[in-house]
Design brief:
This protein has 195 residues and is of the alpha/beta class. It contains 9 helices and 5 strands. The protein has a 5-stranded parallel beta sheet, covered by helices on one side. The two termini are 15 Å apart.
Length: 195
Amino acid sequence: MKVAVLGSYSTQYISSCLEYLLNDQSGERAQVFDGEYDSISSSILDDNSQLHAPEPDILVLLPDTKDIMSFAPESSHLVPKLRSKLIEVMQFYERLWAKAPARSIILQANFVLQNLRALGNLEANYAWSSRSFTVAVNLELMRRRPPQQCVLLLDFEQLASAVGKDKWFDYSAYNMYKHGFSLDFLPEVVDLIKR
């Protein structure tokens, strides 16, 4: 079995643990390819990238919420553009799914709602807030994922909520090592991918 792990953050630690677990618990030999830092789109869209030769059986995509924030409306006067911004995000992911290796099962993490909220409690009251936009993107991912292509969502939002978002996000580790979450939850992340 060949598995490729691509992320918007460093994924070496995930790939190493995943390879260990897959080889320890399965009878067959698993090979895990680890993409470069922040290489989801470049690895998939470039036909000459290492991802395409040989094609993986499983492609794990681990985007970061920061990836979609550049699309999010920044103020209330942009609410009419909210739908078009959401469509823009979805077209990006649909393009990635379509260009991904044809025989690969795609496991894509959804987006974790950030614990830091610029508007505080008001975030829940405005469709243009980053929180509301993230929720909308997660719902669209669920609605528009192509089941015939076998795109399955990994519910990182639920996992982060279960462990507590104050513990999930490790901002110093992100700034120093580009880790997308606290390494304390590496076993849970790898187990979610493995299942």
